Amino acid sequence: MHLSVVIPVYNSERTIAPLVNRLQTCLSGRRVEIILVNDGSRDRSEAVCQELEDRFDNVQFISLRRNFGEFNAVLCGLTHTKGEYVVIIDDDFQNPPESILTLVETAEVGQYDVVYSRYAQKQHHWFRNLGSWLVNTLTTYSIDKPRDIYLSSFKLIRQEVVREIIRYQGPYPYIDGLIFRTTRNVSSVEVPHNTRLEGRSNYTIRKLISLFLNVFIGYSLWPIRLFTVLGAVLFGLGFLSGVLFLISWLLNGTTMTGWGLVAWAILTGIGIQLLFLGVLGEYLGKLFMAHSGLPAYVIKKSERLNERKSE
Questions:
Q1: CA angle, 112 as apex, 108 and 117 as ends, to 5°?
Q2: Which stretches in the chain have pLDDT values below 50?
Q3: Which residues, 6 or more positions from 303, have their beta carbon under 8 angstroms from its beta carbon?
Q4: Which listed site, 36, 191, 230, 298, has its alpha carbon 20 to 30 Å from 120?
């Protein structure tokens, strides 16, 4: 199987069948499997997906018992892929299926592990564009994402990387975070971006906040270290002010009273507390990362190791 296409499906009874038909046409001549994951849709999406599986031999349909979220549905689909390359595409036709070939060509020419799509002009609602900008800015610092990479949902992942991603066992998968924990051999290519054919985006402020907290807390120790640094700075200011007051007392005989004493006590006290909490949080963070099910390293290639496994 050369290519796998994973489509998370949610309330897309009018678009999923045309999308699959178009995929069959534009990817004809290639060995392709299409995996549809119904994420607890409230319309007839499940029935339509079942009809598509019955109609096409290369379509596999998985229906989740309830709505778990886009990333969970994608992770489920990735688990069942067999293709050398795996492409994730939304069910709303905003990404032309023909652009899959552009992603594949870019990956083959550059030998990239992951190829993200980028858009000259995005056709999302302004609120989703704002949310995407916030998440991309956050991930630049939290998961060490290159600034020139836009974390679009339409992307290609090499199967070796997929195998590492699906090792995640927790309830809050963040696909892009798992990608950048596995590889840095990542590129992007510009593709068209269309307006939605049907319905409206399911991107809500609640989902934005949930994603923000998931990235901020679940995939980085950066928040803990931020408080550690803040505590060290406050403690340093308190210590410096104490030294200055001590020098003033030794030279001039003046003592620390009033607001000066209060400010020194607050800076020093809060600084010590935050520093202590930061160090404690660092230990807890390391413990969390150690039990997250992620590998300590990822082997890209080892001929001797493969020979030993085959013996």
A1: 90
A2: 296-300, 302-305, 308-309
A3: none
A4: 36
